[in-house]
Amino acid sequence: MKIIKWLGLIVFSVFTLCTEAKPVHVAVAANFSNSMKRLVTEFEKTSDYQIAISFGSSGKFYAQIKQGAPYELFFSADQAKPDALQKDGLVIANSRFTYAIGRLAVWSARSDFANTIETKLKEGAFNKLALANPKLAPYGAATLEVLKYLSLLESTQSKWVRGENVAQTYQFVSSGNADLGFVALSQLLGTRKVKQGSYWLVPDYMHHAIKQDVVLLRSAEKSQGARAFLDFIHSYKAQKIIAEYGYLVTLSSYEGQSL
Amino acid sequence: MSLTDGDIATIWLTLRLATTVTILLLLLATPLAWWLARTRSWFKGPLSAIVALPLVLPPTVLGFYLLLAMGPNGAIGQFTQALGLGTLPFTFWGLVVASMVYSMPFVVQPIQNAIEAIGNRPLEAAATLGAGPIDRFFTVVLPLAKPGFITATILGFAHTVGEFGIVLMIGGSIPGETRVVSVQIYDHVEALEYAQAHALSGVMIAFSFLVLLLLYTFQRKRKAVGMTYGR
């Protein structure tokens, strides 16, 4: 019987150790990676919870979450996928909110394009135009709206090169293979100051707002860490960081704070 | 669920790519395999390792380096620009070059194994009968190493058809130019169009199965050397 007791004690202590050290699993859309790293650093300074981040495409995360992937929070690049997860009954009620609104920028790594990007785009004076695949990425869909607004849809189409997401679009431009590319402003700001070239910030009336929503998932029902992190994202401090990285934030998160 | 016109276009492009890559690889890999099989040089080891590297490196990583190397500031890019060809990424020929790098070991190794298995004797005999090196290659090596060449052709072709990571990195998904089947399936899955993904994947699976069936039936008949892939 003694052995059973000991075994029980060992199992129990291992189990508690495991639950103690279990990080919060968070799935994050690729465009938000810079900001998220910074947010996690800030959060972990003042909290005992550890955050484990996975970066990827929202579409892949959606499919994985539907198949029972153990993520507790999902930071999507759009509203459609959190919407769909809600309809699938995989989201904890009232947890969803818009954590960031993306801004588009047309970026070139070429030094001779400085301050003339808008002109170059309108005149078609470039070899290739990199954009995120409109079918898959919200930034790509917004890019099409901008090109439509500028009546450049037909004239530029033969020069399009599609990345799977904005991360790849960034690579196409930074490697010098495409003269111009529509990327997320957040990729050019923040920790990685624009190392090369220059950008034109697309006025936000040219496309629908790229609202990015976060949801708390069913698997996080009992996870205090996940709730704590979500509360932190709501905070003035976090929203300020998100804004620094080139996103717009909804004013409701700044409740009672003067900017 | 039937295939869309877009899907069918990707199938044709993929077949065109795989055919081009296979033919060019056979031309390039044969002398390379010949040299590797016959040499006693210290350089054999390093070169064999370089040829086999694509087996180890993740295709997306390989693709990323190729994107940099083929770009206007990269070594390959500088070279192609000097030749007046522009740069290779986002073009069909860019995919051809990248796929050749990636499928190289699948073509070199079976041919090399087959040539090594022939040994020196038949070649020496042919030489004493007055056959020159080129004559020896076509009348002795080629017939004896034929199974190795057939394996190399099938594997090179099939491997190029199934390749995804590199194309994703340097292709840019241009219809009719760089949008191949594997990328199209990936896009369908990412866009949650599972029915279309299933249809196109079904075609791929049927094709791959037939190719491999062909290979193994042929191997059983031949019981040849240098053909022990996947067993």
TrEMBL record, chain A:
Molybdate binds at S58, V166. The keyword Metal-binding applies. GO terms for biological process: molybdate ion transport. GO terms for molecular function: metal ion binding; molybdate ion binding; tungstate binding. Keywords: Metal-binding, Molybdenum, Signal. Residues 1-21 form the signal peptide. Pfam families: SBP_bac_11. InterPro entries: AvModA-like_subst-bd, ModA, ModA/WtpA. The complex is composed of two ATP-binding proteins (ModC), two transmembrane proteins (ModB) and a solute-binding protein (ModA). NCBIfam families: modA. PANTHER family: MOLYBDATE-BINDING PERIPLASMIC PROTEIN, TUNGSTATE_MOLYBDATE_CHROMATE-BINDING PROTEIN MODA. Belongs to the bacterial solute-binding protein ModA family. This is Molybdenum ABC transporter periplasmic molybdate-binding protein. It comes from Paraglaciecola psychrophila 170.
UniProtKB/TrEMBL annotation, chain B:
Signal peptide: none annotated. Its main location: membrane. One of its GO terms (cellular component) is plasma membrane. This is Molybdenum transport system permease. Belongs to the binding-protein-dependent transport system permease family. CysTW subfamily. The keyword Transmembrane helix applies. Part of the binding-protein-dependent transport system for molybdenum; probably responsible for the translocation of the substrate across the membrane. The keyword ATP-binding does not apply. The chain crosses the membrane at residues 12-37, 49-70, 90-108, 149-174, 194-218.
